[in-house]
Amino acid sequence: QVQLVESGGGLAHAGDSLRLSCAPSGLTSSTSAVGWFRQAPGKARDFVAGISATGLTTRYSDSAKGRFTISRHNAKNTVYLEMNSLKPEDSAVYYCAARRGLALSANYDTSAAYDYWGQGTQVTVSS
């Protein structure tokens, strides 16, 4: 079965940086497009960033654009989310999601575009 494990979350102060990692098992990330989503208490799960299997195509939400960077190291079968200039409103549980396909779908920013999900990692940013 497919498992996706997120790591790297924790506590940070406003302006700090964190790097999240997504390590799938039972699935080769080099053959899968991957997205990052987040969900804060009382809010919907929102798209943050996405990347194609080759890493040549990336997409970002408006809130992430210019601050966050998604990348992948296929030899390590790992996808990363580098988060810079963190704000308190970035606090949420962050989820890694994978799609059985090389390319990001046309609806890459919706949960329905992905087939597998991780358990999430908590990110808390204090002011």
Radius of gyration: 13 Å
**Strand percentage, roughly?**
over 45%
Q: What is the global morphology?
A: globular
Instruction: Count the E strands.
Output: 11
Uncertain regions: pLDDT < 50 for 5+ in a row? none
Structural class: mainly beta
Largest sheet report: 7 strands, mixed
Rounded mean pLDDT is 94
Distance between the termini: 40 Å
- Continuous helix count: 0
The topology string of helices and strands comes to EEEEEEEEEEE
Helical fraction equals under 10%
Protein model, in words:
- With 127 residues, the chain is mainly beta.
- It contains no helices and 11 strands.
- It has strands at residues 3-7, 10-13, 18-25, 33-39, 46-51, 58-60, 68-73, 78-83, 92-99, 116-117, 121-126.
- The strands form 2 sheets. Strands 2, 4, 5, 6, 9, 10 and 11 form a 7-stranded mixed beta sheet that branches.
- Strand 7 (68-73) and strand 8 (78-83) form a beta hairpin.
- It is globular and about 40 Å long.
- It starts with a strand and ends with a strand.
Give short descriptive properties of this protein:
48% strand; 0% helix; 4-stranded antiparallel sheet; mainly beta; 127 residues
Short précis:
The protein is mostly beta strands.
How does the SSE layout of this entry go?
Blueprint: E1 3-7, E2 10-13, E3 18-25, E4 33-39, E5 46-51, E6 58-60, E7 68-73, E8 78-83, E9 92-99, E10 116-117, E11 121-126
Parallel strand pairs: 2-11
Antiparallel strand pairs: 1-3, 3-8, 4-5, 4-9, 5-6, 7-8, 9-10, 9-11
